[in-house]
């Protein structure tokens, strides 16, 4: 039976769905890996019907593929789809920056910069983390959310909804693959320095470079982990 690493054992279909989704996002269940109702039911100590319901949710989100008579597999990462999602995310974040520069009063901007500086000081303590499962992810999300909330645009991120989980899985792979925590922190610093310099175009350029995470590693990633990706 699945022990849950100290967590309360999931028992309902909804709880198991969320738990399986977390395992997929964190690559504990790897792209292309075969999974079965029987095995997962035994791990969680529940009936197959409960797992079937959870699997249906995961299939609807595009995280598993169910092939009758062949089996169920964790979906592979589609880099073309991830590239499109990153484009959407970049458009949102660049709009956030535009509104920060054009709508916020100087004193509000100064307070915003102070909060971002405080966040970055805590990020610097995470430079030695090898992957995206330590303290850094929360600080990473907080850094972006500080800016988003400053112009009351969190609803824009929420509109992207569940598809953002695919970006979260890509981030789990991308960061660990090239040990990029330090690089991400430096990119955050570049964004903040552009904001402090009152340079909107540079801030947007730095944000776009920060979020474009495929070009530099795609070929190497596919060569190293061919079973993780759809044809690319």
Q: Please write the string of helix (H) and strand (E) elements.
A: HEHHEEHHHHHHHH
Question: What is the count of structural domains?
Answer: 2
**N-to-C terminal Cα separation, in Å?**
37 Å
Task: Note the main sheet.
Answer: 3 strands, antiparallel
Strand coverage percent: under 5%
| CATH class bucket of the largest domain | Mainly Alpha
Mean pLDDT: 93
The low-pLDDT segments are none
Helical proportion? 55-70%
- Tally the helices: 11
Rg over CA atoms, rounded to whole Å, is: 20 Å
Q: Architecture of the largest domain, according to CATH?
A: Up-down Bundle
Could you give the count of β-strands?
A: 3
CATH topology of the largest domain: Four Helix Bundle (Hemerythrin (Met), subunit A)
Helical/strand content category: mainly alpha
Sheet with most strands: strand arrangement: 1-3-2
Q: How is the topology of this model organized?
A:
Layout (H helix, E strand, L loop, with lengths): L12 H13 L8 E2 L1 H8 L3 H13 L3 E4 L3 E4 L4 H25 L2 H18 L12 H15 L3 H7 L3 H14 L3 H16 L3 H12 L6 H7 L8
Helix pairs in contact: 1-3, 2-3, 4-6, 4-10, 5-6, 5-9, 9-10
Task: Outline the structure in words.
- This protein is mainly alpha-helical and 232 residues long.
- It has two domains: 71 residues, Winged helix-like DNA-binding domain superfamily/Winged helix DNA-binding domain (Arc Repressor Mutant, subunit A), CATH 1.10.10.10; 146 residues, Four Helix Bundle (Hemerythrin (Met), subunit A) (Up-down Bundle), CATH 1.20.120.530.
- The chain is 64% helix and 4% strand.
- The chain contains eleven helices and three strands.
- The protein has a three-stranded antiparallel beta sheet with strand order 1-3-2.
- A hairpin with a 3-residue loop joins strand 2 and strand 3.
- Helix 4 packs across helix 6, helix 5 runs antiparallel to helix 6 and helix 5 packs antiparallel against helix 9.
- The relative contact order is 0.13.
- The model has no long low-confidence stretch (mean pLDDT 93).
């Amino acid at each position: 039976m699945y022990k849950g690493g100290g967590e309360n054992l999931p028992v309902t279909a909804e709880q198991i769905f969320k738990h399986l989704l977390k395992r997929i996002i964190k690559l504990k269940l790897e792209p292309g890996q075969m999974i079965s109702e029987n095995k997962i039911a035994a791990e969680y100590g529940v009936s197959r019907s409960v797992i079937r319901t959870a699997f249906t949710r995961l299939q609807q989100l595009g995280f598993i593929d169910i092939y009758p008579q062949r089996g169920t597999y964790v979906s592979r990462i589609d880099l073309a789809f991830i590239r499109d999602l990153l484009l959407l995310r970049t458009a949102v974040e660049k709009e956030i920056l535009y509104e920060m520069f054009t709508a916020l009063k100087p004193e509000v901007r100064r307070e915003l910069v102070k909060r971002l500086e405080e966040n970055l000081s805590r990020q610097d303590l995470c430079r030695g983390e090898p992957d995206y499962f330590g303290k850094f992810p929360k600080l990473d999300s907080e850094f972006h959310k500080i800016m988003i909330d400053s112009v009351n645009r969190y609803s824009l991120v929420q509109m992207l909804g569940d598809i953002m989980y695919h970006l979260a899985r890509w981030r789990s792979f991308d960061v660990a693959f090239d040990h990029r925590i330090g690089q991400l922190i430096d990119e955050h610093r570049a964004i903040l320095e552009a904001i402090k310099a009152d340079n909107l175009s540079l801030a947007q350029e730095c944000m776009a470079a920060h979020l474009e995470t495929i070009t530099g590693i795609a070929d190497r990633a596919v060569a190293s982990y061919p079973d993780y990706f759809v044809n690319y």
